[in-house]
Amino acid sequence: MGRPASAGNRLLAALPPADLALLAPHLQQVLLEQDTVVIRAGDRRHHVYFPHSGAITFMVGLPNGETIATAVIGREGAIGALSVLGPSFLSSVTAVVRVGGTASQISVSRFHAAYMESAAIRHVVEAHTRSILMQFQHVSACNGLHSVEARMARWLLHLHDRTEDNNILSLTQEALSQLLGVRRTTVTQVIAKLRALGAIRSARRGLVEIDRPRLEEAACECYDIIRSATDRIVPHEAVGSHQHFASADKLHGV
Questions:
Q1: Domain that holds residue 193
Q2: What's the CA gap between 53 and 161, in Å, rounded?
Q3: 176 and 91 share a domain?
Q4: 83-119 in b/e burial notation, b at 16+ Cβ within 10 A?
Q5: Averages of pLDDT over each 10 residues, the chain, 254 residues
Q6: pTM (2 d.p.)
Q7: What is the spatial order of strands in the sheet that 37-39 belongs to?
Q8: Which of 110, 111, 186, 232 is 20 to 30 A from 27, comparing alpha carbons?
Q9: Helices of type H across 10-168
């Protein structure tokens, strides 16, 4: 299937100039360093982030310390956009940077003011919300129905879609165990199986080198479903017009 072309944030790019102008004076470019926690579950959001590159995963943690990833966000989405629901709406997930990159940052108060004034901004937030809910649904099904090998291949592809490097991902086994909700010993076994298939060429010192075509063969169908649905909801060509975004009735239940 191949990786999508690099571009700026697709939500911001979809806004007409007049609506983007409500945000632009208040946007500040920030660096998203790998392993940075952007927000923790239970915290109040103070900023909204629009990634231009990199990948952030939404993590759910249990009282016993176990974690699992429920979604990944890159240039097609935003972090903290649901702060428009009100100051009492606390984050239900922990957002962790898995692939370093950059983002445009704006305070929640500034974003909320622009959201209330602009129908176009409200529309892109709605599209982003549908995209996240779609991921939650499919990742939940994938976690329950598919093998750890297929799920690891899917996550590696999602992250590879959002990295600027060729075929090398900076990922430790600890990070992979957190994404998959499994022990590190299981991660070691799964990596060995994917290496035997040729989907992973090497995995050492926190670097995972992949063979993308073979990794796509090893992944479950959820990868294509999630990526295709995301591209329908927030298309690459939606530049300067939020009307290019798919409406809910065009998504056939997504």
A1: 147-219
A2: 10
A3: no
A4: bbeeeeeebebbbbbbbbbbbbbbebebbbebbeebe
A5: 64 95 96 95 93 96 93 96 81 94 96 96 95 95 96 97 87 96 96 97 93 97 96 74 49 36
A6: 0.89
A7: 37-39, 94-99, 55-61, 67-73
A8: 232
A9: 10-13, 17-23, 108-117, 119-145, 148-161
